[in-house]
Write a structure and sequence with these properties.
seven-stranded antiparallel β-sheet; disordered N terminus; alpha+beta; five-stranded antiparallel β-sheet; 18 strands; homodimer
């Protein structure tokens, strides 16, 4: 969704919380002898502390706050994998729940405590361990902020391409645990595609160290991919080997106006054929979103609103002169063939920033479109136009005053929707139920990039069959038989 | 390894087999009532047959032949997932081993029966189900040959980039089960990176259908990646949704001579920076390999042998004129800076083929370098030069007459080695033990792209820790608690 720095500073929770702690979590109640005291004996006050009961930091992410009664038994801030293992071994033996935490910038409550638990925060494990320029890899501890990873790669004249609005706060281990996405997935893939090696501590304290640097490794099961995207329910990621890329030397950015989604698909076809691997962003904004991101925020629109769709198109390459020429030819040809009705190519870095600011305007929603409820779903790229139409029909029929903003990474099949009714009257669960039903019927995913966590857990069955969910449970039981790792998340 | 059509036709097994059926497989002995008769009752003669006892087809792959006493109880050739599920349910209930088979082109015995079992051959499930041009996907049944997939994509003016020497015989489901690699991994990734959706039947007959087309899907665990590369031990892959790419419009290919591996790494750095995502192959051939692939096979070398290393460099792009210009500039600059001592750029498709024929000469080994033992290992790209030196030292010290050919996909960290001692005297296990010890000590992988199967099973511990292997066993027990799926493979 790309929530920028402004939102991090919000003094109170930014969304109403609706988390219930049912009887299934009762077993996570505090154990008889003080967990904190025992852990202190094992690991000492350097690693274990009692969290300040007033501190909100370990109790909420960007969307969800822990229910008031939930007690954090101890806060563990380990300095290495061995200490992570010691905490997990201790808790696993005693059946104490453990919630691993990164930068707490998630949007689905995946790392929010919902029962009495020990928190493992990776915040002290933030070292960049090695950059191997030849292998094109960066080895880093899980608690390093994404931005520190980007900067270290940049200093070695290479690039780590994952990028999110929360880059300054989110941690690279959390990016892996949630399989983070962002704006460059089209060209570089999701976090899953950017991890070559991984070290994970299992619930029982065993350390799986698979810190390989090779693109190719078919020596048994790919354990790495099982932990990526498992939202802290199967193990705690402690170290990662990441894939780096050459820095691009050219960038071309344009805004294009198109009459409808059919034209958007034509432009996508032309962009794929003409730019191939250079195509790095293809962001679609429906009219109400474009209006809000420009005039709605007091900005002059780079292109006059046409009532049609706006596409932000970007390419990155290695040949500044030729790449921009080819990009201009693509835009010109698309206008001549009437696929694009109007277009503007950025002539400066300032204009590039202006174009992206429109796309990134959800960060400013708290000022102009609040309270709102947001969605992150995916369906096949060709179906997005019909999905938008169907969601609009269904939601407007039920709530004629509802305001809907559609935007998304269309080439990835990823659509975002933000919805607002009258101020303070947000029938959140009803809206969610309707939206996820439509997405499920279209064989889409109820989470494209944010994960399931706590917030989407009730709706998982819309995207995954009973057999799939049963298989996830089997895997969970195999790796965490006592169910101590991040209980109550995903399923 | 790229074994071409000539080898498929070899009338007898192409490598000595050394498979022992220890007591651990005794439990797979035939059950009391005839499995064949019972299966026939359930599924009928359309699906179930008794294999011709003389037919070798279901008893061997390219490297390993089943031990003589191993009995195939029944041959199942299902026509759809439901029939696959029926066979698995039947066998799982009775504890009968099941071996899933694709095109039997593997190199490690992964699909070779080693105990009394029912074979499930996917050969009848070969339909291309759908091509979605907008999503850029192709949905296909697991038994379709790789080449049929490539041709179907091509007919839709798109490309499926996975390519192997056995493309005409290998099946796409087998490519997924073994996470196949090949010559284009550098640019397009391995099979793991090319699968968007998957349908798998588990040992108990449950069907997991996750046939998604979206690049982004974070709705719970990524079950897909768990099955890819699991070599038929966790489930039987029945259908796949594959990712297609725009066809490249330019191709530039060169052979370069370099004095040593340090120069190879300099060229790789320049190629990555100058060609970025267009760089599609970077194949390194050590001197003895280059000599055998040219004069050794009666061909005129395109570049005079220099005693140094030869690199086959290739780029693919979308702009024929500019791409070849940039490619030529890269080669010229590398010669000016003395990284490359001699080079030739292909001027025709015939020359492109000639260059690749040198790299693909292992397919002709049976005529000129036989019997031999081959290796497929990986270490970080920067360590390959030292690995070659160490392997040479260790092996020549032990067997002064040993002949060693080194070649590989250096940018992927992937090195191949073929070794031959005097004819008919190949101390296979001793050589393997030595090679894998060296690779293990260097934290490399004993299998980069061929898998573990049966042949590398004794050496898995060189690449994977006890904790990793224990975790693989836990996953195996969770998904196949009776151990009926392809028993005795990987670990």
């Amino acid at each position: 969704l790309g929530i920028p720095a402004a939102v991090y500073a919000l003094p109170t929770r930014i969304r109403p919380t609706r988390v219930s702690c049912g009887p299934q979590f009762r077993r996570w109640l505090p154990i008889s002898v003080s967990t904190l005291a025992q852990l202190l004996q094992v690991l000492g006050p350097e690693v274990i502390s009692a969290p300040d009961p007033d501190a909100d930091r370990y109790r909420r992410d960007f969307s969800v706050t822990a229910p008031a009664g939930v007690r954090i038994l101890a806060l563990a801030r380990p300095r290495n994998s061995a200490e992570v293992a010691a905490v997990l071994r201790f808790c696993n033996e005693r059946g104490v729940a453990v919630v691993p935490q990164g930068g707490m910038t998630g949007l689905v409550g995946g790392a929010v405590p919902i029962s009495a638990c020990v928190i493992i925060s990776l915040e002290r494990m933030r070292a960049i361990l090695e950059i191997d320029r030849v292998a094109g890899t960066l080895t880093v501890e899980a608690g390093a902020p994404l931005q520190a990873v980007q900067e270290a790669a940049d200093a070695a004249d290479l690039m780590f391409p994952l990028d999110l609005g929360s880059r300054g706060s989110c941690q690279i281990g959390g990016n892996a645990a949630t399989n983070a996405g962002g704006n460059r997935v089209l060209r570089y893939g999701m976090m899953r595609d950017l991890v070559l090696g991984i070290e994970v501590v299992l619930a029982d304290g065993s350390v799986l160290s698979s810190l390989h640097k090779m693109l190719k490794n078919n020596s048994g099961y790919d354990l790495r991919q099982l932990f990526i995207g498992s939202e802290g329910t199967l193990g705690v990621i402690t170290t990662l080997v990441l894939k780096l890329f050459p820095k691009p030397r050219s960038q071309s950015t344009a805004l294009c106006m198109l009459r409808d989604y059919a034209a958007v698909l034509q432009l996508l076809g032309a962009a794929r054929a003409g730019l191939a691997a250079n195509l790095s962003a293809f962001e679609v904004m429906w009219p109400a979103f474009y209006d809000l991101g420009t005039t709605g925020l007091g900005r002059k629109p780079p292109l006059a609103a046409s009532g049609g769709l706006c596409v932000l198109l970007e390419a990155q390459g290695v040949d500044a002169a030729q790449d921009s020429l080819r990009f201009e030819q693509l835009i010109a040809a698309s206008m001549e063939s009437a696929i694009v009705s109007d277009a503007v190519i950025a002539q400066s870095q300032r204009e590039v920033r202006e174009f992206w600011d429109i796309r990134d305007c959800p960060g400013e929603f708290p000022a102009v479109f609040w309270p709102q409820i947001s969605f992150d779903v995916s369906v096949p790229t060709g179906d997005i136009g019909a999905l938008v139409q169907e969601l609009r029909d269904v939601l407007l029929e039920r709530w004629p005053a509802i305001q809907l903003l559609f935007f998304g990474h269309a080439a990835d099949g990823n659509l975002h929707l933000s919805a607002r009714t009258a101020p303070d009257v947000l029938p959140e669960q009803e809206i969610e139920q309707l939206v996820y039903e439509v997405v499920g019927r279209r064989k889409g995913a109820i989470s494209a990039e944010h994960g399931i966590g706590l917030q989407k857990r009730p709706y998982l069955y819309h995207s995954r069959s009973a057999a799939e969910i049963a298989t996830m449970r089997r895997l969970k039981a195999a790796l965490d038989p006592r169910g101590v790792l991040n209980p109550g998340k995903i399923f």
